[in-house]
Amino acid sequence: MHDAQQRKPTAHELMEMHIEAMFTHDRNMRLRTINEPWPGEPPAPRFFLGRTIEGSALCRFRYDVPETLVRQLEELCADEPILRDLRTKPKHFDVYMHLLQSERFTMGPCYLVPDDFMPAAQVVSVTRENMTGLLRGGFEWLASEIDYAQPCIALVREGRAVSVCRSVRITSRAHEAGLETLDEFRGRGYASAVVAGWAMAVRKLEGIPLYSTFWDNLSSQSVARKSGLSFYGVNFTII
After folding, report:
1. Which tens digits make up the pLDDT trace of 62-108?
2. Strand order of the sheet with strand 124-125?
3. How much is the pLDDT for 76?
4. Total H helices, total E strands in the chain
5. Full-model pTM
6. Residues 122-138: what's their mean pLDDT?
7. pLDDT confidence band for 123 (50 / 70 / 90)
8. Handedness of CA 224, 168, 105, 12 (dihedral sign)
9. Comparing C-alpha atoms, which of 155, 130, 145, 150 is closest to residue 201?
10. Taking the mean position of all CA atoms in its chain, how far away is CA 132?
11. What is the C-alpha to C-alpha distance for residues 2 and 143, in angstroms, rounded to an integer?
12. DSSP 129-189
C-alpha cells in the first residue's frame, strides 16, 4: 500500500497526484497530453499552476515551451501567496497570460474525498455486463467509455442510472472523478451518493479519490460543499 494512503496526504502531495492524473509527462516531467483513459489523448495545456492551502505552488510546462520562458514562469510561480479563496486568480495572472500570449485559461477548485464519506443511498457498479439496461434514457453515450472509466458507480431509479460518477483520469496513485446527473434528477442528493460510492471503490483499488471542477461550475462546487469534501487547492492552466 502506498505511504500516502497510510496517512492523510498533504495538500502539496494531493496537487502532485492531481497533475499526474490529469496529464501524461515525458522523462523531463514536461506535459504531453491530457490523460484520458479512453483512446485519443488531446494535447496538454502549455502551463499548469497548482496553488494549495498550505502555500506551496506546483507548476508544470508542456514539452514545447522554451526553456527561457520556463525559467521566467518558475520565478513567478515561486512568488505566489498562500491560497485564501478558490475564486482568486493567481497573483501574476496578467503576466502569465502575457508571457504565453494567450487569452484562454481554465481554473477551478480541487478536493479530496474523505475516507469516512459514505453513500446516503444505495448505488451500483456499472460494467459492460450490466450496462445495457442501466444506461438507457440519458447515459447511452457512456457505453463507449465503460471499459476505460472504471470504477463507474450509478444511482438507479426506475431501472436506469440517473446519476453517475466514474474515473476519468487514472494513475496508480489517484483517480479523478467525472460526475454527471440527469437534469430532472438534480437537487436530490444523488450526486453526493455516487461520489461517495465511487470513492469507496477507488480506495478498494488502493487509489486516492480526487474531485476537481471549474470555478464557474457552481452546481459541482455545491456538491463538493454539501458532501464535505476536503478543499486542498486550485488548478490553473493556460491553453
Report:
1. 999 999 999 999 999 999 999 988 889 999 999 999 999 999 999 99
2. 57-61, 47-52, 230-238, 105-112, 208-212, 174-181, 160-170, 152-157, 124-125
3. 97
4. 6, 11
5. 0.94
6. 97
7. very high
8. positive
9. 150
10. 27
11. 32
12. TTHHHHTTTT-GGGGGTTTTS-SEEEEEETTEEEEEEEEEEE-SSEEEEEEEE-GGGTTSS
Burial class (CB in 10 A: 0-12, 13-18, 19+), 157: middle
Strands 47-52 and 160-170, how do they pair? Answer: unpaired
pLDDT of residue 213: 96
Count Cβ atoms below 10 Å from residue 43 Cβ, excluding itself: 14
Q: Please check whether residue 90 is in contact with residue 98, taking contact to mean a CB–CB distance below 8 angstroms.
A: no
Per-residue pLDDT reduced to its tens digit, 142-184: 999 999 999 999 999 999 999 999 999 999 999 999 999 999 9
The residue type of 76 is L
pLDDT at 235 over 60: yes
The end-to-end CA distance of the chain, in Å, is: 36
Q: What is the pLDDT of residue 84?
A: 85
Q: Which residues contact 114 (CB under 8 A, 6 or more apart)?
A: 228, 229, 230
Give the position of cell 467525472: 178
155 near 182, Cβ under 8 Å?
no
Question: What angle do helix axes 218-227 and 190-204 make, rounded to 10 degrees?
Answer: 70
Decide if 22 contacts 210 (C-beta within 8 A). Answer: no
Nearest to 53 by CA among 15, 105, 16, 4: 15
Q: Where are any strands of DSSP class E within the chain? A: 23-25, 31-34, 47-52, 57-61, 105-112, 124-125, 152-157, 160-170, 174-181, 208-212, 230-238
Determine the 3-state secondary structure of 22 from DSSP. Answer: helix
